[in-house]
Amino acid sequence: MIKISAPSIKPNSHYFSYSVFICIISLVFIVSCSNKYINRIDRGQGFNYKPGFPELRLSTTGYVNPQNDTKIIVSGSIVYGSLIYKKADDLYQANIGVDIEVINKSADNQKAIKLDYKYTINRQEKNIINNQEVYRFEHEYDVPPGDYLIRVVVTDLTSEKQTTQETESSIPDPEGDISKVTEIRVLGKDSSVQNTFFNPVNTYDIPSRLDSLQFIFQVTNNKEDEQLTLQARLLKFDADTTIARRMNFNNYSPSNISYRGIEYDDYDVVQSSRRVLNQSGSVQIKYFFTDLDRGNYRLEVTSERDDDDLYKARDFSIKSKNYPALKSPRELAAPLYYLMDKGEYETLMAIEDNDSLKAAIDRFWLSNINNAARTRSVLSLYYERVESANKKFSNFKEGWKTDAGMIYILFGSPWYTESFGDEMLWSYSYNRQDPRKNFFFHRTKINSKYFPFHNYLFIRKNSYHSVQYNQIERWRSGLILKDNL
């Protein structure tokens, strides 16, 4: 196997000659969002969040090893805080079962692999139920070339609650006569931590603390008499990054980026490269990127042959440092936008020193509630909702910034929801005629392979001014613990 590594390039560095090369190469690229290739774009998995159930994040990759053996890698991560723990001596212990099925879609959906695993997790910290770090597992299987469905079921053996995720992988035939590109595997690491390794990234969202990203894929060039030219681009898309407007503000205009969400036909080329493969066989290619700015990206690979089998892409989004969790003072400060007036918020976010910012956050909560114990309870509830909003509503921007995230944070989970066409109702009352407790959302685009996000915008009204004001006062006074709405 030939191993080719692209140099690590920091996007903000000065590469004048390289930029000229990018401009020339980009002229011959196939349009990134061509309908012809839309099915070959991988966007990773979501957070698969359901309160009380194990949180599983899953990715799979098919590949050919140096001996031309074909394999599938199944990589998963389970959030520690989503499991039930029992006290065992000085440790907190959780037991989980992981069932993995690998189904060969190329052979009448026959089960190629079905294996069960059991893991015991031991942790010392008492607050393990709030820990958003993950337990990782990875297994590799020998399978014939073909298309596969991989189903993974995680069972919390204490609560007996289960979470299931499915994904697909394709493995090229190293002996065949068709050239192919495998799935693009994404790995990341925090370079500020010593002795750390690249670990699989299973989700569309990537926290910015993973400042070093590695993308790995393989190309099988099975036409001996024909060289293969590969082209790769890292694209950054124009997308909405704003925090949701107040409930009584004007609704978004269809021409506004907040209404459109993300523009796949409006992008910048961050990096571009070209590879010429002059020999047949399986070639592994790696790309490294460091310190990418927050935003939505796509790494796409194609060839001059204009061949469907030689196009692959991986979409991803760089989010806040510890996403979906909130740990740093700035991450904790940002969502207070929903509880502060404009002047308060601007003053808070202008504080640059982390210690001073943390002290200002504490003063905000304590000065309003005037009771340390109640303050801790309110603060815990607020940030629990912010983190849940990140998992529930994450899309091209952080979940807490979305309209649905704003309503969820302020009012909690609706009593029931209804969807009809492009409209969605969240009700906090059995009385559907009560305008103060029934909120409507409008979906700007239907979720599809062309627009893979649920972008619901809240239908704002002037009459909501008092509704939101009263809810903010419940939070700021601590009365939210007794009266939610």
List keywords for this structure.
6-stranded mixed sheet, Immunoglobulin-like, disordered N terminus, alpha+beta, 485 residues, 38% strand, 3 domains, 8 helices
As residue ranges, the low-confidence spans are 1-33
- What share of residues are in beta strands? 35-45%
State the CATH superfamily name of the largest domain. Immunoglobulins
E-strand count: 24
CATH class of the largest domain: Mainly Beta
What is the averaged pLDDT score? Answer: 89
CATH domain fold name of the largest domain = Immunoglobulin-like
Question: N- to C-terminal separation?
Answer: 63 Å
Explain this structure to me?
The structure is a single chain. The chain is globular. It starts with a strand and ends in an 8-residue tail after the last helix. It has 485 residues and is α+β, with helices and mostly antiparallel strands. The chain has helices at residues 16-26, 257-260, 329-333, 342-349, 354-369, 372-393, 403-411, 464-477, and strands spanning 2-5, 41-42, 56-64, 70-79, 86-88, 91-104, 110-123, 134-142, 146-156, 162-171, 180-181, 185-189, 199-200, 205-207, 212-221, 228-239, 262-277, 281-290, 295-303, 312-319, 416-420, 423-427, 438-443, 456-458. The longest helix has 22 residues, at 372-393. It folds into 3 domains: 13-41 and 174-319, Immunoglobulins (Immunoglobulin-like, Sandwich); 44-171, Immunoglobulins (Immunoglobulin-like, Sandwich); 329-481, no CATH class. Strands 1, 11, 12, 13, 15 and 18 form a 6-stranded mixed sheet that branches. Strands 2, 14, 16, 17, 19 and 20 form a 6-stranded mixed sheet that branches. Strands 5, 6, 7, 9 and 10 form a 5-stranded antiparallel sheet that branches.
